């Protein structure tokens, strides 16, 4: 018989945690990206990958009655004080986490250690038993304010120009930099269109340096 999987839900804000007395038979941990599809005329369907989706997790089994053998497999913790497992206290604690929008750390030994919010908690009451079925749907928690800012060198005009193209802003004129050509500038700014940019500035050689030259830019 293999080692029992350890699954714990922990709320750092309240100092509360529960080790599940009976684990789900299987637990799917999603890891996916957003994919959008577009139908291009005379070409067909293409896919465009977007950002990474949040992990989603569903835990489902039963919370046993407090007086059963299975209750010995669980433990409640409050502010580092261990307590005997209690069915009612466990259900009340999880419902309070839902109501208060608490951030919950889910630990699945050797497989997962991440923060989630509880999207849904369902208790299933059975007529012939005092055990209580449960389903807990969780969504990965990400705080956008904690995401690191991309590094942009202060003295890099090329990087700054690329950042402006992401914001869909291009100035009407720019001063060419050392080593910059009309081909490189067009590719960096528009992703192409070097011929249009060259024609606008009466440039016939796409490889000639633009150092110090005022370049009339194309409108977005």
Protein described:
With 220 residues, this protein is an alpha+beta fold. It has 4 helices and 12 strands. 18% of the residues lie in helices and 35% in strands. Helix 3 crosses helix 4 (194-200). The chain is elongated and about 90 Å long. 15% of the residues are buried.
Summary of the model, kept short:
The chain has 220 residues and is of the alpha+beta class.
Annotate the secondary structure layout.
Elements: E1 7-11, E2 16-19, E3 33-40, E4 44-52, E5 56-63, E6 75-78, E7 81-83, H1 87-99, E8 103-108, E9 112-125, E10 132-140, H2 157-166, E11 173-175, H3 182-190, H4 194-200, E12 214-216
Antiparallel strand pairs: 1-2, 1-8, 2-6, 3-4, 5-10, 6-7, 8-9, 9-10, 11-12
Helix pairs in contact: 3-4
Give the oligomeric state of the chains in this entry, treating copies of one chain as homo and distinct chains as hetero. single chain
Uncertain stretches of 5 or more adjacent residues: 156-168
The secondary-structure element order is EEEEEEEHEEEHEHHE
Q: Tell me the total number of β-strands.
A: 12
Number of H/I helices: 4
Strand content: 25-35%
User: What's the rounded overall pLDDT mean?
Assistant: 80
Features:
4 helices; 220 residues; two-stranded antiparallel ribbon; alpha+beta
